[in-house]
Design brief:
Number of strands: 33
Number of helices: 2
Largest sheet: 8 strands, mixed
Structural class: mainly beta
Helix content: under 10%
CATH class of the domain at 302-327 and 385-476: Mainly Beta
Length: 477
């Protein structure tokens, strides 16, 4: 029955007078932004609708709206209200677009010519037909054809399918002739966010102060004034979309200074985490802005020097494996309440600073942080050590033949010399990936079996001194 009513009403809906709603009618606006260039917009406006069939031009929606996700609800008088058709008009009004729409149509060309008296100019109006606009304009006058515009063009009207702003045109039926609260919700591209973190390392490198910021970017082609802002952290699955035509976006981006604010409220949402800003904010067109996410002080931190081996070292003869192998520098901390944190951290980049002897903050490294739940460890590689170096040499190698039908046995001996130019001692961790079935036969330093295929050695290196690790390994694979 309802379907029959919709079909019967459709011709009237298509010719109904069009009403327009703009941001001046807006009552509330909520924007939820996801990690992967996706946002959910809920735009509530007060609109006067006539009784019966009507066309509503819902202006100033996102230029990157996904029209198939649009849903218009009547919050005031839902009974007898339905939507029969909706069209997204993203062909925006520009001088070139206007000219293109008038191909085959008549326009008025206004030009000037000197007056016969020789003083001043007369205005000349001529009617012409626009023949083409490809790589230039072709105009047909009653007595000639010209390939350039001899003056300015006057158009009789703006075509109905050419809009000044991105517009969703909705054919609907209203049961009441009065002002009504309508809510349009839709998914859109062009809105994105990321987390950025700044950590200040203490002078003794035992603690750090952490600040988290949310960087918001709006390239959707629409503004979102005084919006309730929420952010979803997590990897939301999305079905693959066929390529679609999108509205042209202006280049450029205005960067707004970050302002101090309380941290965002956090809660679980399905298998994700939802962050809510405690106050409305405005996302202007082509703008990047920052809002505060979190802050924590005196978070205990651990520093590690790490030399990473390679599993191919143990299956052949290599000799000297290179001068001054890089020793990586890592820091890590616990995301726990006992460490003054304990909040789910969205993925982003964490940048670390430390003050020099004059008290000036200096950048010492950065790393990507994945989505990190509460009570997990955050581990960062900040770079490679300058004063701590390593040299690895293979001192012996034997191939002990085949085991069974496929396997081989290799025996290798190594010498790793570690040097420390610092004025304080350091401990260097050597993480050695061992292939197959392995066994450490001899070692000058104790080792632990980190995993089924990994051995860890911890070597203390004195200040302005050196230390040497020697070991022999047999592998079967």
């Amino acid at each position: 029955m309802r379907q029959a009513l919709l079909l019967a009403a459709l011709p009237a809906l298509l010719i109904a007078q069009e009403s327009t709603t703009t941001l001046k009618d807006q009552k509330t606006l909520a924007v939820t932004i996801y990690n992967d260039n996706l946002a959910l917009v809920k735009d509530q406006r007060e609109v006067r609708l006539p009784r019966g069939e009507a066309r509503l031009a819902f202006q100033e929606v996102s230029a990157q709206i996904r029209p198939e996700t649009a849903l218009l609800r009547n919050l005031t008088a839902p009974q007898g209200f339905w939507v029969a058709e909706q069209n997204f008009d993203f062909d925006l009004l520009t001088p070139q677009k206007l000219l293109e729409k008038y191909v085959g149509e008549k326009v008025t060309i206004i030009s000037t010519k000197p007056k016969a008296t020789g003083a001043g100019y007369d205005e000349v109006r001529e009617e012409a037909t626009v023949l083409a606009t490809n790589n230039g304009t072709v105009l047909q006058f009653p007595d000639r054809i010209e390939t350039s515009i001899p003056g300015r063009i006057v158009y009789p009207r703006v075509p109905g399918n050419l809009r000044a702003r991105p517009t969703l045109v909705i054919s609907l039926h209203s049961a009441a002739d009065k002002a009504q609260q309508l809510e349009l919700s839709y998914l859109t591209g062009g809105l994105s966010w990321r987390a950025d973190y700044v950590a200040n390392l203490s002078s003794d490198e035992k603690t750090l102060d952490l600040s988290g910021w949310v960087t918001l970017t709006n390239q959707s082609g629409a503004a979102y004034p005084n919006a309730t802002l929420q952010l979803v952290a997590g990897d939301v699955n999305r079905a693959k979309q066929r390529p679609e035509q999108r509205a042209y976006l202006l280049d450029g981006m205005a960067v707004k200074s970050a302002a101090a604010a309380p941290k965002m409220a956090e809660e679980s949402l399905f298998e994700y985490h939802l962050y809510t800003l405690d106050r409305p904010t405005t996302l202007a067109v082509n703008q990047t802005k920052q809002v505060a996410l979190l802050s924590a002080s005196a978070v205990p931190v651990r520093k590690e020097y790490l030399l990473q081996g390679q599993n191919h070292y143990y299956s052949g003869s290599y000799g000297d494996l290179g001068e001054k192998q890089k020793v990586g520098v890592f820091v890590e901390f616990d995301n726990r309440e006992s460490s003054r944190l304990g909040m789910p951290l969205p993925k982003g980049i964490l940048r670390v600073y430390k003050r020099d002897s004059e008290g000036r903050a200096q950048f010492v490294g950065e790393d990507n942080v994945d989505h990190t739940p509460k009570n997990e460890v955050v581990r960062l590689k900040l770079g490679d050590a300058f004063d701590v170096t390593a040299r690895r040499k293979q001192t012996d190698y034997k191939s002990l033949g085949r085991i069974g039908k496929f396997g081989y046995v290799h025996e290798s001996a190594f010498e790793v010399e570690l040097k420390n130019a610092k004025k304080e001692p350091v401990t260097v961790n050597l993480l050695e990936p061992m292939p197959g079935d392995w066994e450490v036969l001899q070692s000058s330093q104790p080792h632990t079996k980190e995993a089924s295929g990994t051995a860890r050695f911890k070597v203390a290196v004195p200040a302005e001194g050196s230390a040497t690790l020697t070991y022999r390994v047999r592998v079967r694979w």
